[in-house]
């Protein structure tokens, strides 16, 4: 009985995190972007500095008509948002936020592979949406999404493999248990490659060619309205939370900190994740969008060699010094 | 690909039968789940090859491959299950969809997608499936996997088995993949130099990146 209760409680906590954290990131994005651009951002909804803006947005989305284009492939069109969103919920289950087995939704033996595999599945949602919309812009967006995933998943996988080599395990909990502070400079190249490739996989600016709103009017999501469109947006922000959480766990030591790692480890995890999320927003405001060919070139000629170099460095250090 | 899925589903049935001695008449929950997932996988695989809608076929393939991953999970082979999802669902199917979208992916039925060789294909598929099932039945006739004991499919066990007992086949497979990679590059180069630009060219280069990607993924999972 207590076991069942324990499982239910963990699932509930993960679900609540899944519903609230993306909204927090979204609200932060509203405000941070506004202030970086010399604006105020939302100020009215909820009273204090527009804190309830995204709730108001949600209500607005729920009220809109759910339109399916006449020429679309109806069932796949309707299924796509769920395929895009659910993988991130599953990934959150495996991300440890504190020391010990009490602070992770589900301990997995091959956690690194699980999170990368399931994150890759989310892209299928965009592909399905792009194809099923019966719209040229959507199809173009879907094509670009697929090309981007193919280019950027490889460096992500290689850098994650580098951390797994360093720790001698592919379990996320095990990697955190093995973490030492000097891994930070040792794996810094890998961390940068992982984070940048993750941004590209989420199609966040400056890697947002697949959804470029001024060219192909939001790509695969052109035809979506109402709640289904909101689900795609939620998937993007859930993706930011997952990516920042994973970068924290794999490269920044997760719950390790200069002090208080025993009781307050989860604060460190959340703090590092929040700082990374801020960086994600910052990058959106500061960098212009990369062209499609620049995107591919960046991945194949820069990120992949860097990731391979990181693996070589990890191997050499591991064999010679450890 | 679908042949493999079908064979996997059929093999699922045989493992179940082979497990008959300890408790054939009172199957455990895991065994029932295994059988049901096997049926779903088989069904998805059959729909994959029979549907008239090209993109639907690719999406049913996702269901079939995902079902196989669940089967691995039920047999406690966690590492293999996630690699299955990573390579097949995450990469191969995405590549397939990419290729379809680049060339031709009409919404609705495409009657010209049917080949005249369907009966030959069926015969080959049945023969391949029969051979695989026979091999599996012959090899694992009395083997009984104890799911409650120490997990026999963790990353550690898999890695040790792969690099202690199966190093030679593993490396031979690497060489095979390398040959495929080089072959794909040669083919795409030749098509580019020839006088036939257009869709064929794009398809060929798509295959090349696909092969290289799969190969590198294999490297990554080592």
UniProtKB/TrEMBL annotation, chain A:
Subcellular localization, as worded in the UniProt entry: Cell membrane; Membrane
Domain of life: Bacteria
Gene: nuoH
Membrane topology according to the record: Multi-pass membrane protein
Catalytic activity, EC: 7.1.1.-
DNA-binding found in the keyword field: no
Record flagged with keyword Plastid: no
Enzyme class of the recorded protein, top EC level: translocase
Record function comment: NDH-1 shuttles electrons from NADH, via FMN and iron-sulfur (Fe-S) centers, to quinones in the respiratory chain. The immediate electron acceptor for the enzyme in this species is believed to be ubiquinone. Couples the redox reaction to proton translocation (for every two electrons transferred, four hydrogen ions are translocated across the cytoplasmic membrane), and thus conserves the redox energy in a proton gradient. This subunit may bind ubiquinone.
InterPro entries, sorted: NADH_UbQ_OxRdtase_su1/FPO (IPR001694)
Protein name: NADH-quinone oxidoreductase subunit H
Source organism of this protein record: Streptomyces werraensis
Description of how the protein assembles with itself and partners: NDH-1 is composed of 14 different subunits. Subunits NuoA, H, J, K, L, M, N constitute the membrane sector of the complex.
Family: Belongs to the complex I subunit 1 family.
Reaction(s) the record says it catalyses: a quinone + NADH + 5 H(+)(in) = a quinol + NAD(+) + 4 H(+)(out)
Residues passing through the membrane, by range: 7-26, 79-98, 110-133, 154-176, 182-200, 229-253, 265-286, 298-321
Pfam families in alphabetical order: NADHdh
UniProt keyword list: Cell membrane, Membrane, NAD, Quinone, Translocase, Transmembrane, Transmembrane helix, Ubiquinone
Residue ranges that the Swiss-Prot or TrEMBL entry lists as coiled coil: none
Chief place of localization: membrane
């Amino acid at each position: 009985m207590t076991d069942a209760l324990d499982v239910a409680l963990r699932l509930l906590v993960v679900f609540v995190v899944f519903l609230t954290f993306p909204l927090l990131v979204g609200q932060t994005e509203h405000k941070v972007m506004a202030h970086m651009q010399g604006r105020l951002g939302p100020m009215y909804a909820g009273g204090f500095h527009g804190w309830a803006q995204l709730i108001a947005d949600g209500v607005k989305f729920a009220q809109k008509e759910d339109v399916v284009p006449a020429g679309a492939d109806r069932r796949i069109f309707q299924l796509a948002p769920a395929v895009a969103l659910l993988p991130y919920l599953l990934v959150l289950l495996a991300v440890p936020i504190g020391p010990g087995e009490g602070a992770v939704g589900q301990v997995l033996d091959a956690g690194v592979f699980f999170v990368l595999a399931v994150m890759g599945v989310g892209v299928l949602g965009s592909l399905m949406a792009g194809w099923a919309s019966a719209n040229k812009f959507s199809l173009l967006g879907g094509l670009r999404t697929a090309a981007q995933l193919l280019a950027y998943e490889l460096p992500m996988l290689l850098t994650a493999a580098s951390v797994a080599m360093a720790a001698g395990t592919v379990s996320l909990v095990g990697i955190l248990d093995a973490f030492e502070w000097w891994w930070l400079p040792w794996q810094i190249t890998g961390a940068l490659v992982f984070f940048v490739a993750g941004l590209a996989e989420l199609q966040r600016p400056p890697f947002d060619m697949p959804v470029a709103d001024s060219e192909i009017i939001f790509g695969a999501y052109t035809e979506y309205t109402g709640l289904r469109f909101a689900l795609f947006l939620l998937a993007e922000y859930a993706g930011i939370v997952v990516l920042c959480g994973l970068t924290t766990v794999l490269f920044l030591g997760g719950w390790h900190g200069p002090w208080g790692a025993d009781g307050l480890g989860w604060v460190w995890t959340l703090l590092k994740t929040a700082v990374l999320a801020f960086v994600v927003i910052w990058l959106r405001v500061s960098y212009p969008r990369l062209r499609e060919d620049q995107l591919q070139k960046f991945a194949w000629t820069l990120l992949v060699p860097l990731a391979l170099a990181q693996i070589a460095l990890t191997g050499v250090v591991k064999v010679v010094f450890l | 690909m679908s042949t493999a899925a079908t064979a996997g589903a059929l093999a699922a049935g045989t493992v179940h039968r082979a497990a008959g001695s300890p408790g054939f008449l009172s199957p455990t929950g895991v065994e029932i789940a295994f059988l049901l997932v096997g049926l779903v996988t088989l069904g998805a695989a059959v729909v994959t090859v029979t549907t008239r809608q090209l993109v639907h076929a690719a999406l049913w393939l996702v269901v079939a491959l995902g079902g196989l991953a669940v089967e691995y999970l039920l047999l406690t082979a966690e590492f293999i299950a996630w690699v299955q999802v990573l390579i097949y669902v995450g990469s191969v199917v995405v590549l397939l969809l990419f290729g379809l979208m680049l060339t031709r992916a009409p919404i609705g039925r495409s009657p010209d997608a049917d080949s005249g060789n369907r009966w030959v294909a069926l015969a080959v598929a049945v023969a391949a499936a029969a051979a695989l099932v026979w091999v599996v039945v012959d090899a694992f006739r009395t083997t009984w996997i104890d799911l409650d004991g120490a997990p026999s499919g963790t990353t550690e066990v898999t890695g040790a088995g792969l690099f202690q007992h199966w190093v030679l086949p593993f490396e031979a497979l690497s060489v095979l993949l390398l040959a495929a990679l080089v072959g794909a590059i040669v083919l795409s180069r030749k098509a580019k130099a020839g006088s036939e630009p257009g869709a064929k060219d794009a398809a060929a280069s798509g295959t090349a990146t696909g092969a290289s990607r799969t190969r590198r993924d294999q490297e990554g999972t080592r």
